[in-house]
Amino acid sequence: MRLRTSEYFIREVLISLRRNHWMSFASIGTVAVSLFVLGVFLILVLNMNRLASTLESQVQISVYFQEDAKESLRKKVLSDIQEMQGIESVRYVTKDEAMARLRERLGDQKYLLDALGEKNPLPESVEVTVRLPEMVQTAAEAIEQMDGVEEAKYGQDVVEHLFDITRLMRIFGLVLMVLLAGATLFIISNTIRLTVFARRKEIAIMKYVGATDWFIRWPFLLEGMVLGFIGGILAALALRSFYAAMAAKIYSTLAFFPLMSQYPFMNYVSAVIVVSGMIIGTIGSTISLKRFLQV
Amino acid sequence: MIHMRDVSKIYDDTGTVALDHVSIDIVKGEFVFIVGASGAGKSTFIRMLLREVLPSSGVLEVNGRDVAKMKESDVPYLRRGLGMIFQDYRLLPDKTVYENVAFAMEVIEAPRRLIQRSVNAVLDVVGLREKYKAFPSQLSGGEQQRVAIARAIVNDPAIVIADEPTGNLDPETSWDIMDIFQRINAAGTTIVMATHDKTIVDTMRRRVIAIEDGHIVRDEARGVYGYEA
Description:
The structure holds 2 protein chains of 2 kinds.
Chain A: H1 3-19, H2 21-57, E1 60-65, H3 71-83, E2 87-93, H4 95-106, E3 125-130, H5 136-145, E4 149-154, H6 156-198, H7 200-208, H8 213-253, H9 262-292
Antiparallel strand pairs in A: 1-3, 1-4, 2-3
Helix pairs in contact in A: 1-8, 2-6, 2-8, 2-9, 6-8, 6-9, 8-9
Chain B: E1 2-10, E2 17-26, E3 31-35, H1 42-49, E4 57-62, E5 65-66, H2 75-80, E6 82-85, H3 97-106, H4 112-125, H5 141-153, E7 159-163, H6 171-186, E8 190-194, H7 198-204, E9 207-212, E10 215-220
Parallel strand pairs in B: 3-8, 3-9, 6-7, 7-8
Antiparallel strand pairs in B: 1-2, 1-4, 4-5, 9-10
Helix pairs in contact in B: 3-4, 3-5, 4-5, 5-6
């Protein structure tokens, strides 16, 4: 494309953005809102996936005793576990140790535990690490069968729950996305239709003097792309503040949550959002051109 | 320039026969009037030259291009060789005289320096160099048609096609327009003009092709209008 030609296209796009400024404004707004929602789902799903896979990789089993299990029975359980195949390590966690860990995990909010006074409601437990993640389930089931054992918990329950939640979120997000994309396409193609209508005389003359079809189409495609691009930029900026606020909130309350760090993660998300905006804008104007611009 | 052999046009939707086995040759440098009542087939004839409608059968060549067989993507290049002028001028109201004419060159991506030179030259030809900053609404009908002529010839087409160019103008202004056409024609451009203006046709004594009911009923080298005005 020649420099002169691209200048011409840019001028045409600016003219029509100004001419239909309310429609342009509405298009940009719709794109921005839709992409923001898409972005929120993207961020949530990616973080949930990460949380799930982090938990999955922790091949640790926590074994809790029955309340009435005698000291001797507890010792027997401990040695039985040690004799099992594929066990990496076995560690006894006392009530005091459990309390100390909780204190550490709570960080700034450890004062909450002051309310308990001298009482320690945390149970004793045994932490069992297996050599291979595949063995966690069989080992946990075997330990649970032992006398005096209340339950043997491992990450899998939580992980499965998390996967259920992410699956739901993905489906919900997808449905919402389809609806929003439909609305966005509709409003963009209508904006472009107005532009086509406003310029129908010019288009007719362009055809008579021998402008090529692509020369006629370009300013309209470009206009859709620009609407999508601006909407995408706004959505990306909003998402960045949203994520920063969310991250701050989570770090102060759920410090152990393995959140994606803001950079470069949010740069990727922003790029996806802006590119999606441009694609939606281009598709929107293509729909309009197919229907209203017979070239 | 224009070569028609056995060309027919039947509109599919209505079954109307607009042109019925028409054969005609127009050579370079000719000045041709197309006459005939409304609905006789004149506008089909003109739209076919521009490939706005395709012939149903027969061979049509314009500037050496086979109109029926050409690819859709070649149509713009066919039209660059044709300058089109309408009864209602069809100028862009929000562009100045200069911009209206330059527009025809911009959209075929002509170089900027060539645009300036050519636009000034054709505005001289139609005598509107002084009014290059004016908007169409500030011009008389005759002046607007002169701008349209300038736009039609600025890309130096081999053929100028005019559809009732004097239809909205008074006799005196019409003669100004015809004067410009004569000069363009004298410079070697072929002119095909559909008209209802008896006085003009009878005074100019150029080639006249009369179309009635889709047939060519008369083709005279130095003809007259031949119908009651």
